[in-house]
Write a structure and sequence with these properties.
By secondary structure, the protein is of the alpha+beta class. It folds into three domains: 69 residues, Beta Barrel (conserved putative lor/sdh protein from methanococcus maripaludis s2 fold); 87 residues, Elongation Factor Tu (Ef-tu), domain 3 (Beta Barrel); 139 residues, no CATH class. It has three helices and 21 strands. Strands 3-11-14-13-12-15 form a six-stranded antiparallel beta barrel. Helix 2 packs antiparallel against helix 3. The radius of gyration is 47 Å and the shape is elongated.
Length: 350
Amino acid sequence: MKILICALLALGTLLLTGCFALPVEEPVMPPPISTVPEMRTLRTFEVGRGDVLLSTNPGTTYVPVRQEAMHFTVAGRRIRGVFVSVGDEVLAGDVLAELESPYLLDQLRDAQWDGEWVQLQLNQLNERHNFSLNQAQITGVPIDDSHYLTERSRLQSELGLIRMRISHLENEIDEMQIRAPFDGVVTWVMDFAGVMWSGIGQPVVTISDQGQYVFRLVGRDAEVIKIGEYYELTIAGEIFPAVAIDPDEENIVRPPQAGAVASPDAFFRLIGDEMPAITGNTFASVFLLHDAAWDVIYLPTMLINVVSDRTFVQVVEDDIIVIRDVVLGLEGNNTTEIIYGLQEGDLVVL
C-alpha cells in the first residue's frame, strides 16, 4: 500500500513539473501606427533696403571748469553735521558742514554785545563833547575838554580790543565750518552717520563749478574729432547735443594722464537749454559715425557665411533652399551692405 502511494505522488510531481517545462508562446505585438512628421517651418529674413552704419560709442568723463574737495583744518572735533547732498546748488560762502563749537558762538555773541555797548558809549561821549564845544563857541567861554579826549581814547582802545577779539573768534568759527569757495554744485559728500570726528585733510564735500558742462574723450577715437562740429552724448540713457571745443581757447586744464606718453584727447561742451544732473562720477558716451551706406540692400551680418574665398547665403526659392553667392559692401556694426546677389523681397534662411 505504501509503495502504491509513493508511486502516485511521484507521478503527480512529474505531471506538474512537466506543465511548467512546456514552451511559452511570445506575445503578439500590436501593428505599427504610421505617422507623418510635421513640416518644419523655416525662419527667414526678407531682404529690404536700409542704412548701414559703422559707428563707435566711446566713453567720456566729466571735466568741471573748477573742482575743489573741502576738508576741515581742525582735527579731533566732533562733526555737528553735513548740510548738503549730492546735486545741491550752493553759493560762495554757504556753510556746507560744521564742527561742534557752542562755546565759541556764545563768546562771539557776548563780544558783539560788548562792542555794541562800547560803541554806544563812544557815540554818546562824542555827542556830549560836540554839545560842549558848541556852547563854548556861542558863549565865548573856553572849556577844558581833556576829560572828553581821555575818555574817548579809552573807549576807542577798548573797542579796538573787542573788535580784535571778535575777529579772532570769527576766525576760530570759520575753522569749525566748511564754506563753499565759489558758486557750484555738490558732486560728492562723505558718508555721515552718527558720531564722527574731524581729521585734517579728510575730504568732506566736493564742489564743482558747472558753468560749463565739459566732457573729455581720451584714446584713438579722439583723433577723428573735429573742433566746432556737433555730436551727441548719452548720459544716463538720455541724449544731449554737444559741440567739440578747443580746451586751450576755453582755458580748460587737462587732467593728468597715467603713463609717459599722453594719449590723444578731445573735449565736448553740452549745449541747449536742458542739462543733466552731474556728479563727480558722471560718464557719457559719444556717438561717432565712421562710415555709412544710405538706403542700400542689406542683411544682418550673422546671416552671411564665409567659407574660404566664398561668401554666400541660403535663400528659399520655390520652397527649396539654395546657396547664393553675394558680394559685400560696407560692413557696419550689426548689418552689412549687399552689392550683388540679392534683391528686395528675397527670403534668406536664418
